[in-house]
Design a protein that fits this description.
The structure is a homotetramer. By secondary structure, chain A is of the alpha/beta class. Chain A has twelve helices and 14 strands. Strand 9 of chain A pairs antiparallel with strand 9 of chain B, so a sheet runs across the interface.
Chain lengths: 433, 433, 433, 433
């Protein structure tokens, strides 16, 4: 029987409790104040050295920070029980934290990244949806953990408990990156640019769900994560009374609608996967006013940086032309990006060898093929360019609905499997070598 | 010298003061709680018989009532100084009031309609803009009197003062309709359906600005007001992760954008003026989610009911097709309408004859040609179909920018001219005949 | 009984015969070789002085001349019976003729304009359609007299017969302009620029049908003809294999389709009637090739020159933007125009007074309101700017289908009414005064 | 030295001569009368048994046959030197032929497919373009061998010469399919349905160019050919005069343009490659007529049948919606298709082993990845479903421009390499086993 079997059994109820607690209180990217505080207090108690907010990330490398107004509104609603010092470190959208554990013994430096943000989705409210049925659904109207980051955070806490309680059996150094704002590819670069990854030997991250794999299946690595770029576009025209002076308007709503439609006509690329999506459009103020304002949130993706560059070049021209079409101005703001990423073969071996003894892991796949985008790519590329190795794993679970859907949910058993994977890696992969 | 010259001189500062007070505190249609209260308290003091909120309009005939949430938010912010009884009568979006003055002497029954609502426009904040420079700009972020209804309301109060203070010189009965929600053609039908207009002999309403006429010029009647209809359209699709499962989405953002663009392609009509405008579009929740939601606010107009029906028929088909194009569902809500309206020739004579002695009115035009839409049309058509006569006047003023623009403003002298016109009508047109 | 009643009775069968002959052999604008020849030989026999082709119009003022290839193909098919000298004068798309009759006696100079071209429409082939049933339908596949110019030409020949045979009773001078290429506003300017109109005292032209008036009704003048401009637009992109290299294409088909759709979104103009139409679009060569070629034929119209200029300005920007949207080039060729035109009041009196004695004319309307475009406007404006008077009349007839429809047809009795109108004008209006 | 080295050397000039002859006289699919005749007369002289036109293909299985009018025009222009019997067999678009050679000795049955049709592309006319410079450019205006089928045909003739002249050294049976109308996936199914493939043991076909490989490189097999479907779409609306009665039109041009634009917005599919292309759009008759007619030629593709089915389902709905949008009718005609195809591994071995001794072939690639579509798929699937094996090879050559471009050209040395490949296969792969 595995040496840490008991630990897993004991912590299992905590994993579920944490997950549900985070699920109940989801926060959007760069506004994870309470989430960061909850993580931090847990780790502080365990004895980790903490770097919070501005100490954990480079402020100017953040992409797509919410408006001061949104941030201030959110800050105003923060539970009064938060310590002032913590709030001050996070103020202005500097959320997330880095926690370091040094065994004091020579050994590898491992880094783990867990993303902690939620999505602007209104959670489904019916009894088919477990979080609602069990009463741990979102208490923040219009915000939802619909991509499983609540689970990721719980797994990270579980792993931290393991390391703290088994420190005497471990060598080397462990860095935990609880990253804000993964959605939209906005937060990883800011942590990367702070320098946390340059001396890391082995980097691990992963995701629950993604592929249609049963609980108990783990993919030791992934391929196919797409380069991506995220833009906000603002159109400025001229309002006018739509009945009395239609010819005086310069219609920014039509410019935005035209751009949205035309962007989807960018040709497919013969060299690999490409994507375009306009996920948000808002324009206009009143029914009888020709709109002087339009706004888009969009993203491009490509299997390679070059395909994503092609998508961006086409998109830029089309947005400019749509504005010109309706005689309005357009401004493009770059608010996020991810890079393509390649997992190291050596990591597949490590995962396979260390995890084969796990009783929770039924099946290990070498490489899973996906087509999303991940800003963990910045961290992985930083590790690799400094001589380290990196992988991004998947942890199988049945889903009740697609990621980013109002009825998204997963089997909580996946939390145990994922934690067990990390523990086997920590114990087997790096301890005795 | 005119018999009421002194009255006009005395009340002039009040007109400006009222106008600026309403300008400072603009409220959107069916949310004119404080506006109604301010009007009502003034008229109550003068001795008018008041019918407030539910007593003034037919609840079910209101079009485009804001959502309960918006109404409740607004109600929650109402100044605590408002009497509870008033608030109760208005609760749930039942704003506006009808005020009646009966001289007790046989005579004509005259009705005056003043519209009191503001627009969802963010007022310009620079020193070129007089309301900002003088400090009476909107205190309600994103709401603005950008169509002059603040002035209309002030004129109405001025006329009420005149009637109350000169009652002994007057015959007959006077009904004042302070109408909510003119913008969008949403409020007039509800007052009309309550029955106020059926026994009216002469109906007067009007607008400041509209045409490029100097202060001192009055149009005794207008033609060209368009029939119109106002719709809200909701598209429901299916969300999906835009990178991982684009083919599973049913894109409601694209449906809304397609509808918006295509609606403008409805052919012009050879028999007269037509209009289409999508004034608002919002769709989608997040950048990397295929949108399951789209929303439009639009209006059609036509010189005749039949042309407007043509526009509606085309629009309905196009909206349905746009939804089908992207495999989503569309729901159309009818939220407002206006009718075409024809002023009575007899009214032109009355205005011309009674006003020729005014020293404030330099020039009277018989008929001004316009192309907006007015829900006063419901009232006028109700008066006329019961044997009464009706007109809709214009009061000239230079404008600093178009109606419905963030920098809209007018010369406050027009308030005097307009009030003087109403007073001459009241005194000359109906008293001694 | 009218002095020329017998003439009318005698010529009636000829009118129908001519009309059917032209209907059977329709020719497109600037390719009316056989039509011009047929007219010319008839007038030559009557003794008119003829100016054919290059002698009748200014070559460089023609708009929208067909390609050399089309012209050569048509020239190659011309009946071998045409005299070489005639063909030479017309070669290269110089069709139409001017015929002059001088009575030798002092008097007014009257000009009459008859347009002679047909349309690129495939005539309906069923027994409901009279020309088909009676066997005088188009023998030129895809070309059709669907606007009544066959009738106009016949009326012109009838009037020429009258003048030749009644010359001794007439004074002054008569100029007949048998104008090519009215459709598309392409031919009138070329005849105008040749100088025929500068010394004309009275100019008459007209149209059969247009308004829903019964046979026997004549409109002495018209208003509402729109200024217009006609453009051909060519898009040049880059072809590529649509399956193997979609990203290498620059899609001119999409640019053309986008332009076509967007042009209809040009806002209506508050100051008057506007129109836009893309009447032809062709793009692409093969199904699996990304198209490098797109082509549009379009027109803009406006109630005033300034409204038409507005439409042109918007259209130009939108076409340029559509090209830019899909990264292709666009070239705009200006191929035709018409001006607004205003009939002289004096002409209404002339028509009414001279025609009241006609037994064929039941009813005379002063002014008919229309909304098409007419390049007779160039001639009328030239006459008026040199001190002459001008009118454009309508001759009522029931139509079997709209102008420019495959099943268009009219009652042939209208030919008699129209000829009788012209004869009354010639005899009564200018002879004895 | 290879046993047939001399044969290759001797036939090399013939290969070039044939290629240039076919290049000079390109014919579109199902109109390859002269091409078929030229091939047939060559094979007849060699002693092959011929099956021409109706005898070679199943008439009703042809897709996308040109209109009778186009066929008749082409037939009218056929050189008078063609034997009447041949013309009769091909009349009505029954082109292509099957040629059979039986050695009389037991052995494998090999089939070779060569496609013979050209494309509707106007060949580039400048001295940079070799065919033009050397004077063998297309003599058929607007038709061009821009995909190398002229070379394929020449290779086929070369192989036929080899088999005829080396028959005594060979065993088994050889079937040559000179297939019409490969472009658009229109001809292969008709030959397949005639039953030629059911008893074939080994099937070979291939393409010159496609991938950027140097002359001397051969790909023994390919993967990635896409399932595809080809549609023609006709829209029928209602014409009307665009100036006088715009509201009476039902605009088929706008329906076609809307469909063309919207079709490109079909979402990418996460499971593999998809394509959409509208390669041709024509609509409308005249500038000032609202178009009653629109026409599209389009194709969908998918990496799997299921992805192509997804594309078709989306496309069908969008076309229907575009028609409904503008109140017109749409008819979809299915005019071609290809299937995905999988080359047999055994064939790779055969090609590699037999060809390694060739002095013309420098390099053999096992599998080349492509993304076009090929109706040879019907033949391959037919062979494989009856127990045979099949492959589709590529023959490397530098291209002067993309396939389907007006400046497309290849290095003629590829013809030698390809023929040498086929000869090695015939000799080595199947003879002595």
């Amino acid at each position: 029987m595995s040496i840490h079997h008991e630990f897993i059994q004991d912590i299992q109820p905590k994993l579920v409790e944490w997950r549900r607690q985070f699920h109940r209180n989801p926060e959007l990217g760069f506004m994870e104040y309470e989430t960061t505080y909850a993580i931090g207090k847990e780790l502080e108690a365990l004895g980790f050295t903490l770097y919070i907010g501005r100490d954990a990330l480079k402020s100017t490398s953040r992409y797509g920070v919410p408006s001061s107004k949104e941030i201030q509104q959110h800050e105003a609603n923060i539970s009064s029980s938060m310590e002032e010092e913590w709030l001050n470190k996070m103020k202005g959208g500097h959320t997330g934290l880095v926690a370091v554990w040094n065994t004091g013994r020579t050994g590898d430096h491992l880094a783990f990244r867990f993303d902690i943000d939620a999505l602007p989705i209104k959670e489904k409210a019916d009894d088919q949806h477990l979080p609602y049925k069990k009463g741990f659904h979102s208490q923040n109207q219009g915000v939802m953990h619909a991509c499983g980051h609540d689970g990721h955070t719980a797994i990270g806490l579980g792993l931290a408990h393991f390391i703290a309680s088994h420190s005497s059996e471990l060598n080397g150094k462990f860095t935990f990156l609880f990253q804000p704002a993964e959605e939209g590819g906005r937060g990883a670069k800011a942590m990367t640019d702070k320098g946390w990854l340059y001396e890391v030997d082995y980097f691990y991250s992963g995701h629950i769900g993604i592929q249609d794999l049963p609980v108990g299946t783990v993919a030791a690595s992934t391929k196919g994560f797409l380069a991506s770029s995220k833009w906000n576009v603002t159109f400025k025209g001229q309002s006018s009374h739509a009945g009395m002076k239609p010819e005086d308007g310069r219609n920014a709503l039509l410019a935005a609608a035209t751009a949205a439609t035309q962007l989807y006509t960018i040709p497919r690329h013969s060299e690999g996967v490409s994507r375009i999506n306009v996920g948000k459009l808002s324009a206009g103020n009143g029914r009888n006013i020709i709109s002087d304002y339009g706004y888009l949130e969009l993203e491009t993706r490509g299997e390679t940086k070059s395909i994503n560059d092609y998508m961006q070049e086409q998109a830029r021209r089309m947005i400019r032309s749509s504005a010109d079409m309706h005689n309005v101005d357009a401004t493009i703001d770059f608010v996020g990006e991810t890079e393509p990423m390649i997992c190291d073969d050596e990591m597949i071996s490590i995962v396979k060898e260390t995890c084969q003894s796990s009783s929770n892991i039924m099946h290990i796949i070498n490489i899973a093929n996906v087509s999303g985008s991940e800003d963990a790519s910045f961290m992985m590329n930083a590790v690799q360019s400094h001589g380290g190795k990196a992988t991004y794993m998947l942890f199988g679970t049945k889903l009740s609905d697609n990621h980013h859907s109002p009825a998204f949910d997963y089997e909580e058993e996946v939390l145990t499997v994922a934690l067990d994977t990390y523990i086997h890696i920590v114990k087997g992969g790096h301890l005795f070598e």
